Amino acid sequence: MPTSSPKPSCPFDLAELQSLVGEPYWSRGRQYAKQGNVQTLHLEGRELDATVQGSHGNVYSVRIAWDDQGQLTTLQCTCSMYMEWGLYCEHIAAAALVACGEGVLSEAQKDALAQMPRRELLGRLSAADLRELWQQLALAASEFDDLLRLRFMAKDATNYFSRSVLAQAVDTFVHYALERDPLAGVWSWAIHRTLRELLRQGHPRSLEALATVTDALLAIPDWYRYGYVQGQDSVLHFAEELGWIWARAMLTLPLTQEERRKWTRWLKQRKQIAEQGSLDWYSLERAIEAAEEGWDAEPIRRALAGEATGRPTARRFPWTHDDELDRLRFEILLEQGRRKEAENWARVRNLYIPYLRLLLEDGRLDELMQAARDLPLPASQALDAAKMLWEAGHRAEALDLAVTHWRKIGTAKAKLDVLWGIAELARWIWDHASILGREDLARDAAAWILQHTRPSLDDYQAYRSLFSAADWLRQREQALAWMRANASLRDTMLALAEEGLLAEAMRMAEIPEGTHAESAEWEIHKREELMRHLLPYVQEEHPEWVAKQAWALAEALIGTANSAYYELAVRWLAEARRAYARLGREAEWQARLDDLVQRHRRKRSLKRLLRERGWIA
């Protein structure tokens, strides 16, 4: 992007913007400006629009606006930092710095630097710059070395075990997580992989490694306070995975009773530290439970023997149908070759799908079908069971099982999350019944979707395809009634248009009189979407209506006084122009345009767009 010299004056308060952006994002924005990441820059009046390339290649749109005194009124960016959290970012900083000519090289300077030998470049750096560059290179080299050490530790902990490397790896991970840098995922994976590999080998220092990583994580000062805005998801995911590795350790390592009591106390102490830091560490709770129970608690031994028993501890989330710790125990039993105990455990602890999968793997299909019919499967797990049978080639049985559970729960009143699961089951039946030639089941499931969910236009069209032309005439009104009651305004309108009921569809898309205030922006955009989708159905047969509504929509968009909508408004003026041309009334359109330009003569952005179209001089 060309930059001019001499340096332009800054039209807005750059110091105010710097204080709003803050560090480290202001410095990063300055770096972006120097690197040429600002790809386009358009300055008109008191508005600045720019596109800025981020660190990973994504290009973001930036808007800055200010008043007559240079005070900032708008700062916007399409990056996740602004869109999700409302924080001002390095992309805004970069656009502002380039607009004000701060720290930006001219094209001639860039060319000269590109041709300069490395020795001369280094000679031009100050001592402070050289120290910073050396620190960056050393950090990169040290991080690479630490990753290598983690890899060697996982392969040969006897010779390469290092608590300091593990602790430093956690520090590095948290640093990247709080910066929302994708490298956080690399470090998280490397640390967890090392711990899991040590545990798999049964290495005597695996618990020491787990303790080191846990203490390093809890030692990060106040990460939970500022991490929510940047990277807390990554840190919490890291902590949860760490807790489950602890649980596996407590269930797989050959610990004595004294060792188990020692580590139970240790884990409880760390749980208290986490709670003091407002960290609700659920998986660590389950690790403590695993440490306390082991495999010897009476309820555990009875379940392994296939005897019905209550849970040894209260379930944290009672609405779930199986439990993560129960599932972990099941996986460990299979890994240890204790298949019969795994089957007993899955059956007694309500691990429905793992239990049914074991029966399927053993070829016990009749037993599986009887158990699957009798089990109180929720809709989501009934669907999982049906998919499992279908993929194994038992298609008729899969459909039968799905229909059995759908009919059992599909008509019951249910909460929204349960209803969603039933809907997924009904959709699966709809799709797969047709494959097996069961059109009656497909129609029943499709009708349920239209009646009990928020059906789409695709749902409506697919339902219609299940009927012959004659049968559809008898069913159409009922299907449209379901769409009017349950579908979105857009999909209902398009279903009506598909059926040729254009008058009703057009009424749904019309712009209400007087819709132009900023408070009605949402309504305007809703109507714009409706018009855009309905246009192909009506533009040839109803040009009068299109001309009226397209013009009304353009006026409403312009009336918001937001220049971001002007380009969209001009597109609708063009649509109105085409409709007037079909009516042979081009002069009327031109007269209305002249009046619009006169009323909005102060809106330079709008006039520029009209001029680009060749509509005004």
User: What is the global morphology?
Assistant: flat
Strand content: under 5%
Strand tally is 4
CATH architecture of the domain at 363-487: Alpha Horseshoe
CATH topology of the domain at 363-487: Serine Threonine Protein Phosphatase 5, Tetratricopeptide repeat
The whole-number mean of residue pLDDT values reads 83
Fraction in helix: 55-70%
Indicate the radius of gyration in whole angstroms. 33 Å
Order of strands side by side in the largest beta sheet?
A: 1-2-3-4
Class computed from helices, strands and strand pairing? mainly alpha
Unreliable sequence segments: 1-7, 223-231, 311-322, 413-417
Q: Report the end-to-end length measured between terminal Cα atoms.
A: 29 Å
Question: What is the count of DSSP helices, taking H or I runs of 4+ residues?
Answer: 33
For the largest beta-sheet, the strand count, sense and barrel status come to: 4 strands, antiparallel
- Indicate the CATH class of the domain at 363-487: Mainly Alpha
Walk me through what this model shows.
The protein is mainly alpha-helical. Among the domains are: 14-115, 2-Layer Sandwich (TATA-Binding Protein), CATH 3.30.310; 363-487, Serine Threonine Protein Phosphatase 5, Tetratricopeptide repeat, CATH 1.25.40; 512-612. Helix content is 68%, strand content 5%. The protein has 33 helices and 4 strands. The chain has helices spanning 14-21, 25-35, 80-85, 90-99, 107-115, 118-124, 127-155, 157-160, 163-178, 183-200, 206-218, 223-226, 232-252, 257-276, 282-293, 298-304, 324-335, 339-348, 352-361, 365-374, 379-391, 395-409, 416-435, 439-452, 457-464, 469-486, 489-498, 502-509, 521-538, 543-559, 566-582, 586-599, 604-612, and strands at residues 38-44, 47-53, 59-66, 72-77. The protein has a 4-stranded antiparallel beta sheet with strand order 1-2-3-4. Strand 1 (38-44) and strand 2 (47-53) form a beta hairpin. Helix 11 packs antiparallel against helix 13 (232-252). The model is unreliable at 1-7, 223-231, 311-322 and 413-417 (pLDDT under 50).
